Amino acid sequence: MVSATYEVPATVPVRSFPRVYVSSGHDPLEITMAQDLVSHLREDLEAQRVDRDRLEQMRVAGQIPNATLVVMLEMHTEQGVDVETTQRPETVCGPGGCYRRTRYDNFDVPTLKATTTVTVYEGPTARVLQRATLQARERGRTFDSMRARILERFTADLKRLVDARSQQVQVRLLQVDLPGVAEALQLLEGGRWRKGRLALERAARSEAAGALDRGDRARLFYDLGIARRFDPVSAERDPERHFTAAEAALREAIELDPRQRYADALAQLREHQRATAEVRRQREATERNFALEQQRDPNAEVPPPPPGYDVTPPPG
Predict the structure, then answer these.
(1) Which residues does the chain have with pLDDT short of 50?
(2) Cα–Cα distances in angstroms (integers) from residue 78 to residues 108, 110, 113, 116, 132, in the given order
(3) Which domains, and CATH codes, for the chain?
(4) Max CA pair span of the chain
């Protein structure tokens, strides 16, 4: 297995706007989450916590600038009890003698289920752009300890929602009995994707490659498709051509030998391409919105939301 990474877009791309107001209810956990998110966002934009009761007053009074998003955090908790059963052997003695039996004991385990709804909307218009849901469930001796663990989990989850991040994947390369392939795979396994890709390109164009049977040729094109996918040089120069070339190699592998491995690799490539395109669009939206903010034009229209606001992550 070989490790590779690529960038995936923010699930909740609030960093595409120069100003973010974070609000919540009055529960101490909500307030702490909001404050933590503000501190996290302040690394590269203007962020502040605004009391929920003030938001509508500010909007009606025209005090929320155009290039502003509002993130509302609302948490609901539900206490419960799990009943668990333990068993242990015991010896019971009576007039007729002693015998062994299994004893069953029931005991209660406190539980705490929490759901946080993250709602993003335009500050000046209050138009909802996105909703995401975070869920957690804890078991323990005290509700205070469970609330502390849930708070730690949700604050970490919120940071992951608003940040683009590197996605690490594991890919398997296949051996092919062809001069130059073993050396190319060694380069790829060492993380030298550009040199390994070029070595595979030369091997695939050789006369010996044309003499391979269909199965070996499919493995060769599969390896080539993987190498093209993670070649950083071609990805930087021309992303569209980069992914087209990788798809062509994987399609050739499927045509030669329709194995599930090759079809899965093609699906993963397309997801990689989709993520790369969305990262690029979010960056473009960020540049545009920050440029509008620098103009400070009070009559400018509200900037359009960046790509990604039509995606709601699954509960987790």
Answers:
(1) 310-316
(2) 16, 11, 5, 12, 19
(3) 9-77+114-164 (3.40.50), 80-109 (no CATH), 172-258 (no CATH)
(4) 96
Pick left, alpha or beta for residue 308 (phi over 0 → left; psi -120 to 50 → alpha; otherwise beta): left
Structure confidence at residue 313 (pLDDT):
37
Identify the CA nearest to 272 among candidates 309, 306, 225.
Answer: 225
Sheet holding 128-139, edge to edge: 46-49, 19-24, 68-94, 97-122, 128-139
Q: pLDDT of 262-277, one tens digit each? A: 999 999 999 999 999 9
Give the residues across from 114 on adjacent strands: 77, 136
| Structure-block tokens of residue 129 | 């752009």
Query: What confidence score (pLDDT) does residue 312 get?
Result: 37
Please, are residues 112 and 77 in contact by the beta-carbon 8 Å criterion? yes
167 CB-side CA count, 13 A: 16
Q: CA-CA distance, 315 to 120, in Å (whole number)?
A: 16
b/e map 54-69, b = 16+ CB within 10 Å: ebeebbeeeebbbbbb
